[in-house]
Amino acid sequence: MQAFETSTHARHWLFTNEQLAERRKATHDKAVQKASLASASATTDEMVGQEEAELLCTYYEQKLQELCHDENARDRTRFTNRVLATAQTYYKRFYLLTSPMEEEPKFVMLASLYLAGKVEEERIQVDDLLPKYAKQLKRDDLLALELRLLEALRFQMAVRSPFRCLAGLMQDLHAWLDEKQHGHAAAAAEGDIEAAKLVAAIEALESLHQIAIKGVCASLCTDAPFTHSPQQVALAAVLGAARKHPALHDAGRVEAWVTQRFGASGEGGMEQLHALLSQVEVTSSMRADLGAEGTTERLKGIDTKLKRLTKQIKRAEQAQEAQRAAAEEERMRAKDGATKGQDDLLKRQLAEARASAKAYASAQHAEQVKEEVGECTAAKKQRVDGGAAVAKSEVKSEVKSEVKSEVKSEVKSEAL
């Protein structure tokens, strides 16, 4: 597996608290500007504050976890903690770059779950989500939102889950306690109290794991996934769970395991590690209190304002898109007109070139024919002249022969 330090998770999605604050403010200010342009009559009271927007986003993060837990209770093979962590990570990253004034958190929550099901290879269908949780959302709208989610994530879908890290840590802790128990095996037969405590600690690991899982779930609803690695989040959850479990906390066994397995070398190494894990725990504990009195009514009011602003922004974006489409169509028409004129000119030039080529070819052909006729005439004349010379030579030969024959005959007659 690729090292965490070189993953897109580590390189693009870990921030300092200051960087997070700057990004969120920039995202909120951009959305406020969009809302102001979408509705010139909008007042300050009609806008949603940054803290209100973040509160509503946190509410739907918790709803996402509740949905996964409820569905997983019905079918243990679906909506597992893998999907939960991946979907919630997608959701958090999306709203780091997009304001809830631009996209409704409830719909983004469902799109995140749908996409996470594909990535984690769990069977989550559109019909598992829309009929139960968003009847008003159309299938095509969910798929379009999934595409926008992918674009916002820059198609960086690999997520390192703290639940996977937690499972590995629990296995290592179990193996470490087993080693300690084997070392006290002989003494255990004699009633060694330490050996008995080790057995109790091993038996308590399952409950410790469940408490740590709840700790990870709580951390996912805070900024911890943005400021610390999944390994740190998982380890802090184990330490937090151990403090709540007497069988493990009283003897400091988990702290001893952390020191032996993860203690940094050099002066102050363990102090730095514990300071880091304490920072993770503090960040993980900074969870919005949605159970406070009046919070439900406040959330309803925020949700109502957000939906109105979202509709205004979307209408404005659709109008801008229509204007861009019309301008593009006009540009294409102008381009087509210019192209047609160029095509006509090229056609004329091509026709002229063809005519010139044809005329040139005709002239060349005529010249060639003339040359061929001349050659044929010369050859014919040569044949005629040659034939006449031969005939003349033959006549001369015949006359000469006849004369010679007559002379011989006359001489012979005179002699007689």
Tags for this model:
single chain, 416 residues, Cyclin A, domain 1, 17 helices
Describe, in short, the structure shown:
With 416 residues, the protein is an all-alpha fold.
What secondary-structure arrangement, pairings included, does this model have?
Elements (H helix, E strand, L loop, with lengths): L7 H5 L4 H22 L11 H25 L6 H17 L7 H15 L6 H8 L5 H14 L9 H22 L1 H5 L3 H11 L1 H16 L3 H4 L2 H14 L2 H4 L3 H10 L6 H17 L9 H121 L1
General description of the model:
- With 416 residues, the chain is an all-alpha fold.
- Among the domains are: 1-160, Cyclin A, domain 1 (Orthogonal Bundle), CATH 1.10.472; 161-290, Cyclin A, domain 1.
- The protein is 79% helix and 0% strand.
- The chain has helices at residues 8-12, 17-38, 50-74, 81-97, 105-119, 126-133, 139-152, 162-183, 185-189, 193-203, 205-220, 224-227, 230-243, 246-249, 253-262, 269-285, 295-415.
- The relative contact order is 0.08.
- The mean pLDDT is 79.
